[in-house]
Amino acid sequence: MTAPVTAALDTPASLTLHDFSVTYHRGRHIVEAVRRVNLTVRRGEVLGVVGESGCGKSSLALGLLHLLPADKASVGGSVKIGSHELVGASSAELQEVRWRDVSVVPQSAMNALSPVLRIGDQIADVVRAHTQESKRSARRTAEDVLVRVGLQPEHARSFPHELSGGMRQRAVIAMAIALEPEIVILDEPTTALDVVTQQLVLEQIMELRAEIGFSLVFITHDLPLLLEWSDRIAVMYAGGFVEIGPQQQIAENPLHPYTRKLLGSFPSLRGQRDEMATIPGQPWDLRRRGRGCLFAPRCDARMDVCTAETPHLVTEDGRAVACFLHHNNVSPDGAAIEGATA
Amino acid sequence: MTTVQPEGTLAEPARNGDESREPDPDLVSTDDRGRMGRGVRTLVPSRRAAAGLIIIAIFVLVAIFGPLISPYPAEKSFDSWLTPSWRHLLGTDDYGQDVLSQLIIGTRVSVAVGVLSGLLGSALGTLVGLLSGYFQGIAGEVLMRIVDLLLVLPSLALIIVIAAFVPSMSNGVEILIIAGLSWLFIARSVRGQVLTEKSRTYIDVARVTGLGHTEIMIKEILLTIFPVVFANAVMVTTSAILTQAGLSFLGIGNPNSVSWGSMLALAFSTGAILHQAWWWVVTPGLCITILCYGFVLYGNSLIEVRYR
Amino acid sequence: MIIDLEHVTKDFRGTRAVSDVSLHLESGENVCLVGESGSGKTTIARMIMGLEKVSGGTITVHGKPVQGGGRLSRELQMVFQDPFSSFNPRHTIGYALIRALQAGSDLDRRKARERAVDLLDQVGLQPAEEMLARYPDELSGGQRQRVSIARAVGGGAQFVVADEPTSMLDVSVASRILQLLRDLMRLNVSYLFITHNLAVARYIADRIVVLYRGEIVEEGPADEIVSDPKHPYTKLLLECTPDPERPKRARTERVARTDLPGDPDLWCPYADRCPYFTQECTAPVEVQQVEGRRVRCTLYSPERMSADTAIR
Lengths: 342, 308, 312
Known about the structure:
The complex is a heterotrimer.
Chain A: E1 13-26, E2 29-42, E3 46-50, H1 57-64, E4 73-81, E5 84-85, H2 91-97, E6 102-105, H3 119-130, H4 135-148, H5 165-177, E7 183-187, H6 195-212, E8 215-220, H7 223-229, E9 232-237, E10 240-246, H8 247-252, H9 257-264, E11 290-291, H10 304-308, E12 314-316, E13 319-321, E14 336-337
Parallel strand pairs in A: 3-8, 3-9, 6-7, 7-8
Antiparallel strand pairs in A: 1-2, 1-4, 4-5, 9-10, 10-13, 11-14, 12-13
Helix pairs in contact in A: 3-4, 3-5, 4-5, 5-6
Chain B: H1 47-69, H2 99-135, H3 137-152, H4 155-165, H5 171-198, H6 201-208, H7 213-250, H8 260-269, H9 278-307
Helix pairs in contact in B: 1-2, 1-9, 2-3, 2-5, 2-7, 3-5, 4-5, 5-7, 7-8, 7-9, 8-9
Chain C: E1 2-12, E2 15-26, E3 31-34, H1 41-48, E4 56-61, E5 64-65, E6 76-79, H2 93-102, H3 109-122, H4 128-132, H5 141-153, E7 159-163, H6 171-183, E8 190-195, H7 198-204, E9 207-212, E10 215-221, H8 222-227, H9 232-240, E11 288-290, E12 293-295, H10 302-307
Parallel strand pairs in C: 3-8, 3-9, 6-7, 7-8
Antiparallel strand pairs in C: 1-2, 1-4, 4-5, 9-10, 10-12, 11-12
Helix pairs in contact in C: 2-3, 2-5, 3-5, 5-6
């Protein structure tokens, strides 16, 4: 594997989220799954997004490409790719950008393949949906891209159930890179795979990355995995980012108490066998409204101010953290975390 | 207008409950999600189901109280071919017998034979399906092959043949014959369901924690598949009602009792159409249709709930 | 409790899922079966529990052979991988737990209920009384696994087979379940733990057994296996286990041999991926004793050891 490209601070940005939010509404219930986040994905980098279930990471991935059902979810703020602004864009504009500039592999995508269509046809469908390619040409593209992800061209004629989990995951990744986008977002790509298959699939992805040059947004709950593969890591909690920084700094010197706890809560291959931290309590339920820092109820370092005010995500020296232990900046929203009120 | 949820309080004791790796809540509702299959709500899940049940209930009541509510005894004759009037709401037939009375009296046979044979067939089919699906093995396989064979044969033809060999056709015999063929379909269907449920982890858990076979079959498997089985049973009953009517119509049914099928048979054989006696030709068929429709409404609504 | 597997094999429609596995399990020692999918680890667990029949060899518990078709005793229980299908959605948690506690014991319903409440408390599900009335779909995966664990240890089990109980949970949630399992060891419970992650194996187990394609390829004390793996496959597993403390490594050599002469069954099952393959690696490969461990690899056969010291 080639050494990872560490994107320097002045590398141009591929994707910029500004005040980006995703809100679900059903009747009178409103849930803000992603709360006005700011994030930059730099060209060529591997950005790891780590968070537990229910923190909003999948909503982030699907929301930024407007892939959530419009009647249930709304998106706010700004998502910029190159010069395209996605929030508020028309279907036609979105269609241009999707898969050509940014692609997403949602969670459990490998289980969402159509069981009645051959793999090659499914990939060809994706290609033809976003380009003017003919059927024959799209099929050829499909075969080519299957080879690129480590499968055989013959697999284009296979049905999903004929392939193993690892192979299906590769097929789904093939769909995502078929048009050589600038940014690829993977939501839990290796979660259902065993460690060896996981390793092989990730190596393949990184090879493709070196070849094609896309930035990778790697979303998972498996922090040790991100520490191995990411350039930068963004820690997500309760719909917002609590810490963002270079992989090494996060690993050696985590600033946010949640990051610290998270790092310690995995069994390790060396060191004391019975040492493993756990985080008490439950992850924040996004349906609830809260005041102050949403991690405070579970934080062992909480102070009085933490329950009254919400810490802002403050960037300094290439690292960002939202914690009053490290700064005094209050979130511009004011005291309460507000859902979008009617 | 947001519904206000209780704010997160810090004093809350730290619970050790966890979240699992489920996808982010696509739709977050704090309402109780409808519980499928709990208690009586299984049996009447919707307005359609209620409508179906009401129709069925009406017919059952008529069947039970038949002679009491019928305006005249079925055999009493008046003038023939009378058109509907206040005295004879549905007119009279070629023999002068009041059509409405016949319909009401005939309901007994149609409902009783239809429903009973449907129930009997379903019970038998469920038992066979359950046992052969749970225990599998050679006996189960052989049984299923027999079922397959019998299913292939056209049931009406088979019934006709059997009826021809039976010395005397009474209601009881009719029930047995119809049930004897309707259990096949249920057996196949139940077996398939059982095989699916059997592969679920919680059945392994039941075995590992020491539950006996009977308990597992009834409390774990049957309970889970019951709504679908019930829905299928309802369909089978519909078919039984139609079959009974068909047998009577063809003249192989019980010759001694009045039923909708026998009314139809008479109507056609005496040329009611030529006499334009629509009140006699249409009404028995209408009754069959409405009763079956009641069952269909009910049965379908059960299946819908299960697979929503 | 002593569980012995002697030369156990299992075939599924012509494919050999488990091949000549011999294992000795004893109360007081936690053992981990480690391997990727298809290694046979789950099949072995199911055979021990009597959920599958062995095709060859024997499995005995306390000297008595395991009967197919169900639970052997209250002392041997199992926790399954999938929390979502481990419960009948139509029964409450209370029903499932109480029923399990009553089966095979003479607890009356009231006593069983008390015990259930106590157990739910012990596994961290509070308020326990309230939990009894809940249905499985109201609980998260982690909570459901806790109930499964309560159900397994509640009847006084000495041995619990845990089949990847945390693989469907968030890793941070998994850590709490693992910790719970460790805590419960004070109830004199030993585990046969199945996983594909060596870090998890090390946390729970005293002894690790590495499986590949249905065969045991290496077995030894947990710490040693992880710090000094002998079998090439174990080394591969170790490399593939995410490790935050290890510096980013260069990609290891991936071998995919398609030119094995003759029938693949003639060779060691790992032959097509092994960097150390030689013509000596014919099946069956002998198990060697190396430094207190069993390793099924020709690398450690006396002939090869003396001939080639460069590998070590």
